[in-house]
Design a protein that fits this description.
By secondary structure, the chain is mainly alpha-helical. Helices cover about 70% and strands about 0% of the residues. Helix 6 runs parallel beside helix 9.
Length: about 350
């Protein structure tokens, strides 16, 4: 088995693990439906940041290698890919339910793949490389068709008395979340491939440390706003009406989705080209749908099943694309960049 093939398989398995872990974040807002999205977001990333503190001691040697510019980059990624993304997503789920935001986030494989290719075109194939459009389009078409099927099946089940203005706001917030997560994996992947000798685990921990002061400040601001004498309707602070449930969920999501999920995604990002890695975010959509149906105690209908099958077929089709080595003289419009470094930092 070639090194490129090993990197492809390992990267796909890491992306699968990240998707399974990230799917949890779609059900947390439904389990805490009476908690404001801001509190859920700040609670999640406060837990993530606190979890990162002992991990930082473990990775102190690797973290010491990061420059000031690296920490600035970690802060940017944390602000957009963590705090802003989940704030928009949790608010969207509370307003529109799980299916619609899940489907909008499910378009990310298409959006990221196209965005990555366009960025590759602008910057030159020798920088990041591009998958050939003619090979990329069939997998994108399958994924888009699958998402359309699932979306049609889910929206048909909306209650007749659905508040359309609230529902529309949920859709817009989900689009904003998708925009955040279009930017994040591309930017994060670029840093990881540019620093192939750095530890993905330490980089995940660095983002947790960068998130901690943001989350702490946001949590304190909400406490002052929602507490006695604040400008919001009274809310039981510091942990709301179900403190044990809230703390347990925030710790679980902070550890599994935020740190471990980010670690798995970092490992995948160092092994896969951005257009292909973007398509594998479909695993997150599939996991979120599976978890939602488990919570409903309901089997998906045939249209949903067909959509899931199309999504999987799109991923399998994407994995058949073979990148070419750099400098192969591929004509414009059909470039295919190399797989990123397959070296795994210790």
């Amino acid at each position: 088995m070639t090194m490129h093939r090993q990197a492809l398989i390992a990267g796909t398995l890491y992306a699968l693990a990240a998707g399974l872990l990230w799917g949890v974040v779609f059900i947390a807002p439904t389990l805490l439906h009476d908690y404001p999205a801001v509190l859920q977001t700040m609670g999640r990333y406060l837990a993530f940041g606190l979890i990162a503190l002992p991990l930082a001691v473990w990775d102190r040697a690797r973290l010491a290698e990061l420059t000031r510019a690296d920490w600035v980059e970690a802060a940017k990624l944390a602000a957009v890919g963590n705090v802003l993304y989940y704030l928009c997503l949790s608010a969207a789920i509370q307003r529109a339910g799980v299916p619609l935001p899940t489907m909008i986030i499910g378009t990310l494989p298409v959006v990221i793949a196209v965005t990555a290719n366009l960025r590759g075109s602008a910057r030159g194939a020798l920088v990041e490389g591009r998958l050939p459009w003619r090979h990329l389009l069939p997998s994108l078409a399958l994924i888009a068709a699958g998402l359309a099927c699932v979306n049609q099946a889910e929206t048909a089940q909306l209650p007749a008395d659905t508040d359309l203005s609230r529902y529309t706001m949920g859709a817009l917030l989900a689009v904003a979340a998708a925009a955040c997560w279009t930017w994040y994996p591309i930017r994060n992947g670029e840093w990881l491939r540019a620093h192939a000798g750095r530890s993905p685990r330490a980089w995940a921990t660095a983002q947790g440390l960068a998130t901690l002061p943001m989350a702490a400040a946001g949590y304190l601001a909400f406490w002052l706003w929602a507490g006695p004498g604040g400008g919001a309707p009274a809310f039981e602070m510091p942990f709301g009406p179900q403190p044990l449930k809230f703390i347990a969920l925030m710790l679980a999501v902070g550890l599994l989705a935020s740190w471990l999920g980010t670690l798995c995604w970092n490992e995948a990002s160092q092994r896969l080209p951005p257009a292909l890695a973007g398509q594998l975010i479909v695993f997150e959509t599939l996991a979120a749908l599976a978890y939602a149906f488990v919570l409903r105690w309901q089997w998906p209908g045939w249209l949903t099943g067909a959509g899931v099958a199309l999504l999987i077929a799109g991923v399998v089709t994407a994995l058949r694309v073979r990148p070419r080595p750099p400098g192969a003289g591929v004509p414009e419009g059909t470039e295919c960049g190399p797989l990123p470094s397959n070296r795994t930092p210790p």
